[in-house]
Design brief:
There is one protein chain. It contains ten helices and seven strands. It is of the alpha/beta class and 268 residues long. The protein has a single domain, classed as Rossmann fold. A seven-stranded parallel sheet has the order 3-2-1-4-5-6-7, sandwiched between helices. Helix 1 crosses helix 6, helix 2 packs across helix 3 and helix 3 packs parallel to helix 4. Bound molecules: 1,4-dihydronicotinamide adenine dinucleotide and D-galactaro-1,5-lactone.
Length: 268
């Protein structure tokens, strides 16, 4: 049967807030969790992924988990280690102990951020392109995908790892014209990842059907995802303001954009 009760971690964040609005329309009952309290949601669980007992209690009785919680940008390694690496491990352990069979993991394009962006007639980036993280943050997403594979092989817990592009109300850069996922398509994709059968561990890219798409959405579509949006209506204005992506600009050369070129965060 399709999952009904879904734990949404990171529910106070940008994507969590968008999904809290949109996913109930698909019939889900959301249980919310975040480090931070959520205004207007007094029942939301306020907990740190570092607190194993709290995480175990949070997953008890749900049919599935959408795991968005964590640090969503580059940060010192120690912080990434706690929130994204240990935190995601705690969540999977809790799922194993409590018998939750399906997790949707918010991976990121930054797990493969050092992949050159396709140009001209280059093929779209395939889903099995090697991990090439562009930051400690991206590295934690590579780890999360491996963790998901491990919990499938070892314990039979299914995951769809979604390498999300940029899920915001509107694209705000020329790069985002290629990687943008509209919030409505985000909800469509999460719904597909929750309801598709026999996913084992499946990795998909998460974006709308953008005219300037850089990656292959075939795997996402095979789960039943049918994106309805395209960033193209935003293109003229963004290109007029910012110009086209430039050859010779390193941040424009790779999938990960500025995550590739931003100075590393010390201490290593
Ligand atoms: P965000 O930073 O707005 O939200 C993350 C939430 O996680 C925050 O509310 C924060 O309080 C919570 N959190 C952080 N550490 C925690 C911990 N130790 N325990 C419990 N909660 C914790 O990020 P956003 O944009 O909403 O992204 C959500 C997820 O999707 C993140 O995992 C991010 O890496 C991933 N993602 C998002 C993309 C996007 O376009 N928004 C693109 C690619 C990946
Ligand atoms: C991400 O992984 C970040 O969480 C999000 O804030 C955006 O920066 C996005 O990637 C992106 O690549 O635009």
């Amino acid at each position: 049967p399709a999952p009904r009760t879904v734990l949404l971690t990171g529910a106070a964040g940008g994507l969590g807030t968008l999904m809290r609005d949109l996913l109930p329309d698909y019939g889900y009952e959301l249980r919310l969790l975040d480090l931070r309290p959520i205004e207007g949601a007094p029942d939301a669980i306020v907990a740190d992924l570092g607190d194993k007992d709290a995480v175990r209690e949070a997953v008890r009785g749900v049919d599935a988990i959408i795991h968005l919680a964590g640090i969503s940008l580059e940060a010192p390694f120690e912080k990434i280690l706690k929130a994204n690496i240990e935190g995601t491990y705690h969540l999977y352990e809790a799922a194993r102990e409590e018998g939750v069979g399906r997790i949707v993991f918010a991976s990121s394009n930054h797990a493969v951020g050092y992949t050159p962006r396709p140009q001209g007639d280059d093929p779209l980036i395939p889903i099995d392109t090697p991990h090439r993280p562009d930051t400690f943050y991206g590295l934690s997403k590579s780890f999360g995908e491996d963790l998901a594979q491990f919990y499938w092989d070892k314990h039979g817990i299914e995951t769809v790892s979604v390498r999300i592009g940029s899920c915001f109300a509107e694209p705000t850069s020329v790069r985002m014209l290629s990687v943008w996922m509209s919030p409505a398509d985000g909800a469509r994709l999460f719904h597909a990842t929750l309801t598709a059968e026999n996913v084992g561990h499946t990795v998909v890219y998460g974006s709308s059907a953008n005219t300037r798409l850089w990656w292959d959405l075939t795997t996402a579509r095979s789960l039943g995802y049918d994106p309805q949006d395209d960033s193209e209506p935003f293109a003229e204005k963004l290109i007029a303001e910012q110009g086209e992506l430039q050859d010779g600009n390193e941040a424009h050369a790779y999938l990960g954009g500025q995550f590739v070129t931003d100075p590393p965060i010390w201490p290593y």
